[in-house]
From TrEMBL:
Active site: 67 (proton acceptor)
Organism for this UniProt entry: Acacia crassicarpa
Transition state stabilizer, annotated site positions: 63
UniProt superkingdom: Eukaryota
UniProt name for this protein: Peroxidase
Length: 327
């Protein structure tokens, strides 16, 4: 009973006939079928128009979901604005001047508040938006279990601890394992870097004074890529925030090119190329580079796993009315 709100009472009785009551405390593929039947089409149309206005938004929405799930679970915490009384996650290093897509989530939320007020969580909106963004970009489609509730807290410290492109692969693997994911998920989900952009400072150390020796570049980076990146990101501070595509070959397409790039020593981030130099991850990189459909299938499976990290369900948390502020 704990997990059924009054509003869902009839649905609850209905479900009771078919499922164990425990199911109601878990995510469920038909969670909003009765309470917000147009949910998917509302999310889909808004994500489509955001991406047709700006192609990069697809990548940004996917990354937003990752940054949400890895901090306090997939609870919409990344969406909360800072106030004088409340410190959110937006000013943490991995998000500051980097995480984007908040306005798209706001637009979807307002449309949903009109169609089905106080029903759909911001955490579920981010999850669905990420799914649509991948699909629109040529990636896989997968069913998304729903019923996440929005958190009442955020954690800037934890957001500062998101995987960094400067840390050793082993640290990144440990961070994934801490969230209940595994080493294969690191390889599979990193495939998200098949679209979107990175600022020069996130990989510049590979171009000019690698390992502290002036004039040296990262030996695991293809030399012609080094040269072209040196032009795009000159060795001066004012190039730090310039944007470069993570996958220059098929910049906006969600495909397996990320892995083909790694095989030809053309990963952009050091943490990307590292997947090629660790004997626990190389085989899967090679498999994905050869079998695009294997990657697309596995990506969908890993996304569902990521979407279940630390979720709030039942009566936990709340359904925010505005994704930027607590009710
Ligand atoms: C494995 C550890 C990861 C590291 C170290 C990492 C690091 C980064 C960095 C440094 C950027 C560029 C940010 C900027 O310059 O502002 C970036 C962009 C991006 N990341 Fe990751 N990331 C990781 C995993 C993931 C995962 C799991 C996903 C999603 C499933 C993801 C999706 C993206 C996307 C789509 C972009 C482009 C965003 C845009 O253009 O707005 N990343 N990542
Ligand atoms: C759902 O959306 C369709 C069109 O997308 C619309 O015709 C219909 O009226 C909507 N239904 C509700 C209950 O909002
Ligand atoms: C369209 O994209 C631009 C950035 O390219 C952004 O500044 C603008 O707000 C977007 N407009 C809409 C309606 O989303
Ligand atoms: C944030 O997370 C850190 C590390 O997990 C934890 O030590 C700290 O207590 C959390 N802070 C808040 C305000 O929840
Ligand atoms: C460039 O950036 C580095 C590191 O952020 C800083 O130490 C240095 O003072 C900056 N140089 C200039 C000329 O601003
Ligand atoms: C994998 O690499 C590690 C360290 O680089 C090495 O100790 C280990 O023997 C290797 N394992 C296999 C199966 O090659
Ligand atoms: C890669 O593919 C080969 C052959 O299809 C298979 O035997 C192997 O288990 C795969 N390895 C991984 C890590 O997926």
């Amino acid at each position: 009973m704990e997990c059924a709100t009054n509003k869902h009472y009839l649905l609850f009785l209905f479900c009771l006939m078919f499922f164990s009551p425990l199911v109601l405390c878990q995510l469920n593929y038909r969670f909003y079928d009765a309470t917000c039947p147009n949910l998917s089409s509302i999310v889909r149309s808004n994500v489509w128009s955001a991406i047709s206005n700006e192609t990069r938004m697809a990548a940004s929405l996917l990354r937003l979901h990752f940054h949400d799930c890895f901090v306090n679970g997939c609870d919409g915490s990344v969406l909360l604005d800072d106030t004088s009384a409340f410190k959110g996650e937006k000013s943490a290093n991995p998000n500051k001047n980097s995480a984007r897509g908040f306005e798209v989530i706001d637009t979807i939320k307002s449309a949903l508040e009109k169609a089905c007020p106080s029903t759909v969580s911001c955490a579920d909106i981010v999850t669905l938006a990420a799914r649509e963004a991948v699909y629109v970009s040529g990636g896989p489609f997968w069913p998304v279990p729903l019923g996440r509730r929005d958190g009442r807290t955020a954690n800037e410290t934890e957001a500062n601890n998101l995987p960094s492109p400067f840390e050793p692969l082993q640290n990144i693997i440990d961070k994934f394992i801490n969230k209940g994911l595994d080493i294969n998920d690191v390889v599979t989900l990193s495939g998200a870097h098949t679209f979107g952009f990175a600022q020069c400072f996130t990989f510049k150390s590979r171009l000019f004074n690698f390992g502290g020796s002036a004039g040296k570049s990262d030996p695991t980076m293809d030399t012609s890529l080094v040269q072209s990146l040196q032009k795009l990101c000159p060795n001066q501070n004012d190039s730090d925030t310039k944007l470069v595509p993570l996958d220059p070959a098929t910049t906006n397409r969600f495909d397996n090119m990320y892995y083909r790039n790694l095989v030809s020593n053309s990963g952009l981030l050091q943490s990307d190329q590292a997947l090629m130099s660790d004997n626990r991850t190389t085989t899967l990189v090679l498999n994905y580079s050869k079998y695009p459909f294997l990657f697309l299938r596995d990506f969908a499976l890993s996304m569902e796993k990521m979407g279940r990290i630390g979720v709030l369900t039942g009566q936990e948390g709340e359904i925010r009315k505005n994704c930027r502020v607590l009710n």
